[in-house]
From TrEMBL:
Organism whose genome encodes this protein: Xylanibacter muris
InterPro entries in alphabetical order: 3-IsopropMal_deHydase_ssu, Aconitase/3IPM_dehydase_swvl, AconitaseA/IPMdHydase_ssu_swvl, IPMI_Swivel, LeuD
CDD domains assigned: IPMI_Swivel (cd01577)
Domain Aconitase A/isopropylmalate dehydratase small subunit swivel residues, every copy: 5-123
SUPFAM superfamilies with a match to the protein in the record: LeuD/IlvD-like (SSF52016)
Its job: Catalyzes the isomerization between 2-isopropylmalate and 3-isopropylmalate, via the formation of 2-isopropylmaleate.
Protein name stated in the entry: 3-isopropylmalate dehydratase
NCBIfam families: leuD, PRK01641.1
Quaternary organization: Heterodimer of LeuC and LeuD.
Length: 196
Protein backbone atom coordinates (compact mmCIF):
# COMPACT_ATOMS: atom_id res chain seq x y z
CA UNK A 1 0.00 0.00 0.00
CA UNK A 2 2.80 2.42 0.83
CA UNK A 3 4.24 3.96 -2.31
CA UNK A 4 5.78 7.33 -2.99
CA UNK A 5 3.62 9.76 -4.93
CA UNK A 6 4.72 12.00 -7.74
CA UNK A 7 2.73 12.14 -10.99
CA UNK A 8 0.14 9.44 -11.65
CA UNK A 9 -1.46 9.01 -15.06
CA UNK A 10 -4.16 6.35 -15.31
CA UNK A 11 -7.50 5.35 -16.70
CA UNK A 12 -10.34 5.60 -14.20
CA UNK A 13 -13.13 3.66 -12.57
CA UNK A 14 -16.29 5.83 -12.48
CA UNK A 15 -18.69 5.63 -9.55
CA UNK A 16 -21.18 8.45 -10.26
CA UNK A 17 -23.13 7.99 -7.03
CA UNK A 18 -23.51 10.68 -4.37
CA UNK A 19 -23.40 10.14 -0.60
CA UNK A 20 -21.45 6.88 -0.73
CA UNK A 21 -20.91 6.06 2.93
CA UNK A 22 -18.26 3.94 4.59
CA UNK A 23 -20.69 1.05 5.14
CA UNK A 24 -21.19 0.86 1.39
CA UNK A 25 -17.43 1.07 0.84
CA UNK A 26 -16.78 -1.80 3.30
CA UNK A 27 -19.77 -3.38 5.09
CA UNK A 28 -19.57 -3.63 8.90
CA UNK A 29 -19.46 -7.45 8.88
CA UNK A 30 -15.91 -7.26 7.48
CA UNK A 31 -14.51 -5.11 10.30
CA UNK A 32 -13.36 -7.96 12.53
CA UNK A 33 -9.72 -7.76 11.45
CA UNK A 34 -7.23 -5.18 12.67
CA UNK A 35 -4.77 -6.14 9.93
CA UNK A 36 -5.00 -3.96 6.81
CA UNK A 37 -4.58 -6.89 4.42
CA UNK A 38 -7.45 -8.47 2.48
CA UNK A 39 -9.98 -5.65 2.61
CA UNK A 40 -9.70 -4.84 -1.11
CA UNK A 41 -11.52 -8.01 -2.09
CA UNK A 42 -14.59 -6.78 -0.18
CA UNK A 43 -14.55 -3.19 -1.46
CA UNK A 44 -18.18 -2.27 -2.30
CA UNK A 45 -19.03 -5.88 -1.43
CA UNK A 46 -22.83 -5.57 -1.43
CA UNK A 47 -22.86 -3.73 -4.76
CA UNK A 48 -20.18 -5.87 -6.31
CA UNK A 49 -21.47 -9.37 -5.53
CA UNK A 50 -24.77 -11.22 -5.41
CA UNK A 51 -25.79 -13.04 -2.22
CA UNK A 52 -24.34 -16.28 -3.62
CA UNK A 53 -20.96 -14.59 -4.08
CA UNK A 54 -21.15 -14.33 -7.85
CA UNK A 55 -20.07 -10.99 -9.38
CA UNK A 56 -22.80 -8.56 -10.43
CA UNK A 57 -22.15 -7.89 -14.08
CA UNK A 58 -23.72 -4.42 -13.92
CA UNK A 59 -21.32 -3.11 -11.23
CA UNK A 60 -18.41 -1.03 -12.49
CA UNK A 61 -15.64 -2.98 -10.71
CA UNK A 62 -16.80 -6.08 -12.57
CA UNK A 63 -16.77 -4.34 -15.95
CA UNK A 64 -13.50 -5.08 -17.80
CA UNK A 65 -13.87 -1.85 -19.81
CA UNK A 66 -12.93 0.16 -16.72
CA UNK A 67 -9.71 -0.05 -14.78
CA UNK A 68 -6.76 1.87 -13.47
CA UNK A 69 -5.71 3.21 -10.10
CA UNK A 70 -8.01 6.27 -10.01
CA UNK A 71 -11.55 6.09 -8.64
CA UNK A 72 -13.82 8.95 -9.72
CA UNK A 73 -16.67 9.20 -7.22
CA UNK A 74 -19.76 11.34 -6.73
CA UNK A 75 -20.19 14.14 -4.23
CA UNK A 76 -19.92 13.44 -0.47
CA UNK A 77 -17.74 10.35 -0.68
CA UNK A 78 -16.93 8.52 2.55
CA UNK A 79 -19.72 9.88 4.73
CA UNK A 80 -21.10 7.95 7.69
CA UNK A 81 -18.95 6.21 10.28
CA UNK A 82 -15.28 6.99 10.76
CA UNK A 83 -14.08 3.43 10.07
CA UNK A 84 -10.53 3.42 8.75
CA UNK A 85 -11.26 0.05 7.14
CA UNK A 86 -12.96 1.91 4.26
CA UNK A 87 -9.64 3.53 3.33
CA UNK A 88 -7.90 0.16 3.81
CA UNK A 89 -10.33 -1.40 1.31
CA UNK A 90 -9.78 1.36 -1.25
CA UNK A 91 -6.00 1.08 -0.95
CA UNK A 92 -6.14 -2.72 -0.84
CA UNK A 93 -8.05 -2.83 -4.10
CA UNK A 94 -5.26 -0.83 -5.74
CA UNK A 95 -6.67 2.67 -5.97
CA UNK A 96 -4.03 5.36 -5.42
CA UNK A 97 -6.29 8.37 -6.04
CA UNK A 98 -9.96 9.13 -5.39
CA UNK A 99 -11.43 12.16 -7.15
CA UNK A 100 -14.68 13.73 -5.93
CA UNK A 101 -16.22 17.15 -5.47
CA UNK A 102 -16.54 16.59 -1.69
CA UNK A 103 -15.19 14.12 0.88
CA UNK A 104 -16.26 13.53 4.45
CA UNK A 105 -13.40 14.97 6.54
CA UNK A 106 -12.57 11.88 8.59
CA UNK A 107 -12.61 9.62 5.55
CA UNK A 108 -10.43 12.07 3.62
CA UNK A 109 -7.84 11.96 6.40
CA UNK A 110 -8.08 8.16 6.61
CA UNK A 111 -7.30 7.97 2.88
CA UNK A 112 -4.27 10.24 3.31
CA UNK A 113 -3.06 8.11 6.23
CA UNK A 114 -3.26 5.04 3.99
CA UNK A 115 -1.41 6.51 0.99
CA UNK A 116 -4.53 7.17 -1.07
CA UNK A 117 -4.72 10.74 -2.38
CA UNK A 118 -8.19 12.33 -2.14
CA UNK A 119 -8.49 15.03 -4.81
CA UNK A 120 -11.29 17.59 -4.49
CA UNK A 121 -12.43 19.11 -7.80
CA UNK A 122 -15.31 21.37 -8.81
CA UNK A 123 -18.66 19.79 -9.61
CA UNK A 124 -18.24 21.00 -13.20
CA UNK A 125 -14.88 19.28 -13.59
CA UNK A 126 -16.23 16.12 -11.95
CA UNK A 127 -19.21 16.05 -14.35
CA UNK A 128 -16.83 16.48 -17.29
CA UNK A 129 -14.75 13.52 -16.08
CA UNK A 130 -17.84 11.32 -15.77
CA UNK A 131 -18.97 12.32 -19.29
CA UNK A 132 -15.56 11.64 -20.83
CA UNK A 133 -15.15 8.27 -19.07
CA UNK A 134 -18.66 7.21 -20.13
CA UNK A 135 -17.88 8.14 -23.76
CA UNK A 136 -14.40 6.60 -23.68
CA UNK A 137 -13.46 4.19 -20.89
CA UNK A 138 -9.80 4.63 -21.88
CA UNK A 139 -9.87 8.31 -20.84
CA UNK A 140 -6.77 9.07 -18.82
CA UNK A 141 -6.37 11.49 -15.94
CA UNK A 142 -3.07 12.90 -14.73
CA UNK A 143 -2.70 13.72 -11.05
CA UNK A 144 0.40 15.79 -10.35
CA UNK A 145 1.01 15.93 -6.60
CA UNK A 146 4.09 18.22 -6.71
CA UNK A 147 2.11 20.86 -8.65
CA UNK A 148 -1.23 19.92 -7.05
CA UNK A 149 -3.05 19.66 -10.37
CA UNK A 150 -5.42 17.17 -11.94
CA UNK A 151 -5.78 17.06 -15.73
CA UNK A 152 -8.40 15.41 -17.90
CA UNK A 153 -6.17 14.16 -20.74
CA UNK A 154 -9.22 13.81 -23.00
CA UNK A 155 -10.02 17.54 -22.95
CA UNK A 156 -6.80 19.04 -21.62
CA UNK A 157 -8.71 20.80 -18.84
CA UNK A 158 -6.83 21.17 -15.54
CA UNK A 159 -7.81 22.08 -12.00
CA UNK A 160 -5.72 22.70 -8.92
CA UNK A 161 -6.40 20.91 -5.65
CA UNK A 162 -5.50 21.62 -2.03
CA UNK A 163 -3.55 19.36 0.30
CA UNK A 164 -2.04 19.85 3.73
CA UNK A 165 1.71 20.51 3.35
CA UNK A 166 2.64 17.88 5.93
CA UNK A 167 0.56 15.18 4.24
CA UNK A 168 1.94 16.17 0.83
CA UNK A 169 5.49 15.73 2.16
CA UNK A 170 4.59 12.33 3.65
CA UNK A 171 2.95 11.08 0.44
CA UNK A 172 5.79 12.24 -1.77
CA UNK A 173 8.33 10.53 0.49
CA UNK A 174 6.36 7.39 1.34
CA UNK A 175 6.25 8.24 5.05
CA UNK A 176 3.57 7.52 7.60
CA UNK A 177 3.36 9.58 10.81
CA UNK A 178 5.75 7.29 12.71
CA UNK A 179 8.27 7.29 9.86
CA UNK A 180 8.15 11.09 9.85
CA UNK A 181 8.86 11.27 13.58
CA UNK A 182 11.73 8.79 13.30
CA UNK A 183 13.16 10.77 10.39
CA UNK A 184 13.13 13.87 12.62
CA UNK A 185 14.34 12.19 15.82
CA UNK A 186 17.52 14.30 16.00
CA UNK A 187 15.56 17.55 15.67
CA UNK A 188 13.09 16.43 18.33
CA UNK A 189 15.87 15.51 20.74
CA UNK A 190 17.66 18.79 20.04
CA UNK A 191 14.45 20.73 20.78
CA UNK A 192 13.96 18.79 24.01
CA UNK A 193 17.52 19.61 25.11
CA UNK A 194 17.01 23.33 24.40
CA UNK A 195 13.64 23.49 26.17
CA UNK A 196 14.27 21.61 29.40
Amino acid sequence: MRQKFDVITSTCVPLPLENVDTDQIIPARFLKSTDKEGFGENLFRDWRYNEDGSPRKDFVLNNPEYGGCILVAGKNFGSGSSREHAAWAIAGYGFRVVISSFFADIHKNNELNNFVLPVVVSETFLAELFDCIAANPKTEVEVNLPHQTVTNKETGNTESFEINGYKKHCLMNGLDDIDYLIQNKDKIEEWEQRNR
